[in-house]
Structure formats: structure tokens, C-alpha cells
Amino acid sequence: MPKEPLIAFFPEASFGAALNCIGIAQVLKGLGAKPVFICHGHFQGIFAEYGFAEFPIPAQTKLSAAEHQHYWETFIEKNIPYFDQTPLEQIDSYVAPAWEAIIDTAIEAEKPLQQLLARLRPDVIVLDNVVTFPAISNAGCPWVRMVSCAETELPDAAVPPYLSGCAASDAAAREAFVSRYNAAVAPAHARFSRFLESCQHPLHPPGQFLEDSPHLNLLLSPTPVRYNRKQPLAPERYVYLDGCVRSEAPYVVPEFPAHNEAPLIYVSFGSLGAADVQMMKRLIATVAGLPYRFLINVGAYREMYDSVPDNVYLDSWFPQPAVLRECRLFVHHGGNNSFCEALYFGLPSVVIPYCWDGHDNARRAEEVGVGAYLPRYAEPLAALPEALRQLLADEALAARLQGISATMQSNPGSVNAAQAILALTE
Length: 426
Prior knowledge:
The chain is an alpha/beta fold. It has helices at residues 15-30, 65-79, 87-120, 134-137, 171-198, 270-273, 277-287, 320-324, 336-344, 358-367, 380-393, 395-410, 413-423; strands spanning 6-11, 34-39, 53-56, 124-128, 143-147, 216-220, 238-241, 264-268, 293-297, 312-315, 329-332, 349-351, 371-373. Helix 1 packs across helix 13 (413-423), helix 3 (87-120) packs parallel to helix 5 (171-198) and helix 7 crosses helix 11 (380-393).
């Protein structure tokens, strides 16, 4: 019997990357491969719930899994005041410190990851992260870069700078952002370069922390929101995906004491955005008087909400793809997974970003006309009721989104990704 190809996924410790990879792994399993997941210790259990073997990276510190999780919760909670800043202002307050923390995790993981990969001996490694791990490129097998952030992560003269939220046509804003960004992250970049040198790994250009794979790069960027790049990406090495939506059991919508027949709207700002409990409480107060039903993801903070309006249902987690099938509109933070899933299910988006590539996806949603961009630095909750009303009443947009949905669902990105990954094993 031929050996099952062993495909090792290594997503960063975030639900967006993890769940995106699960969608691809589900298809790979159906095609006869053996997907497994390498994960940070505090992210154990996510992949096992979907039936996949997990291999946690042994921690070199004395922190427990719970303490690691608390570290990132504390990091986010400390940075909540910066979420109301412009992308340009966040470079110094949030982005540069975030890169320092991300680099810490890469350096800490290097030796344990080397040992784990030598033991697993995978046929292909799929990396869904924002930083280089030299152990992966030195593992002796093909590796795949999964770009599950915005397409802006891959630089191009015709594409806005990564994390900038700039319009493609605003040359002055783009130049100002790049100049400030490169200066702010220079110390982190220099430290990371010293680490790469110690691993005999090639260095990256200024401002970049991850290289493209020489084997295969997968971009989670659906057709309607892609950019016309000045330097087109070589199709044999760069494959665009129309979303990588995982399979979930059907979701049964709960009964609502009020507006039980009204349009259903899903609200989620991801596991990190849920940490801003005060903002979430203001949002709930804003929607309490609207003639719609709301499912709202409040993450690990459910016990902090003691009063819930009759048209609102809160939970700490929702099976997002199954929920979106039942909804008319999606309010989210611009995470690439959420943005793609909104398009996959034909829903308009109201994007209220707070950091990272959420700014880029919010701008792109507005540019291509598939949603509304409500910046947090411009009183987004005041504008939310009218944005919801306009998007729900736009019949032409609804028809266009249904066409996008039909196209994406007829050509699933998870299938295309799985086939491209398996081709590396032949």
C-alpha cells in the first residue's frame, strides 16, 4: 500500500489561521492524506476537536499553557487604548511592539520545532504565520506559505502597504506609512536578522519578517477583492484561493424574545477583539433598539455581560460558517477569514477594524463595494445603524453578492489548496 502523505500544518496561535487550515486539512483527509497540526501549547485542543492529531511545540520557558494564553490576553488588553488610533498612529504604539512579541515566539520555538520536525518527517509543511521559522525551510521537504492575512502582505508597487489601510490610489499616504513603518520596526527587524544569521538563514528586506516559499504560496484572497498587481505573481508558485471554509454541522438559531422574524446579523471581532469588553457593551447598547436580531460573539468574556437585550443573543463561541448561512449581514473586524467567509456566503460586511490587516480589508471592502468601512477612530457606533439599514436595503448589492457566493462555492478554495499541496508530494 502507498504511504499516506503526511502534511504538517503550523498555523499561528489565532483562530483565523487555525480554522482556515482546518478547512484545507478536511479536504486533504478526504483525498487520502494524513494532515496533522503543529501548535503552540496554549492552542491545544482546537484541532483535536475536528479529529486531527496535534503536536504541541515543547516550551523552552517555565510558563504553563494557561500562563502563555494569559500572556497574549494581557498583551491585547494592554493595547486596547490603541485600537481607536489611525493605522499610521498604531505603527509606534501597537505594530512595532507586536512584532517584538511575535519575534520572541519564533526564537523560542526554533530548537523545539527542529526536533519535532525531525521526528515527524512530514512530506510537506504548511506555514500559516507572519514570521519566518528557519526550522521549516531547513526541514528537508517542500513547504507552503499560507497567506491568510490580506493580499497586501505580499508587497507590490500597485498594492497598498501591509497594515496601512491606505487606498491603492493614495500615493502620498502610502509613502508616509512606509517611511514611518520601516523606521519604527527597524529595531525589531535588526534583532530578527541577527536570529536568522545565527540559523544560517537568508535575511529579509527592510520591514519584512517572512519570505515567500520557493515551492508554493497560497493566497486567501477571493477574486472580487484582488488587486491588479504591477508585477503579476507566477501562477505555478502562487495560487489564489476563493476562501477556505471549513465544514461545520448546521446551526440552529435560538428563539429571540423580540423581532424573532427580523433579519439576522452576526457580530464578531475575533478572539482578540472580544477583549475590548467596554466597546462590545457600547455596541450592544447601540443595537438594542434596532429592528434586527443579533448573534454576538463575546469570546472568553461571557460572564462580564449580565444584561442582554431581547434582540441579542451572546455566546463565547459560534461555528461561524454554519451561522453565516443563516444570516443577512456580518459585522466584523476585517480579519481575512471573516472577510472571505462573508463573501463565500453572499453577505455584505460592516467592517470595524481595530488593528493589523483589518484596516486593509476594511478599505478594500469599501473600494470594491461589498461593505461599509467604519473606522474606530471616527465614532463607528454612531454610524452603525444607518450602515446596517443601507446595506440590508440594497437589493442590487444582495444580487451581486449572491453571484460572488455562487462562484466561490462552485470552486472551493479549500479543494484547490489541497490539490496544490498534494502535487508537492508527487
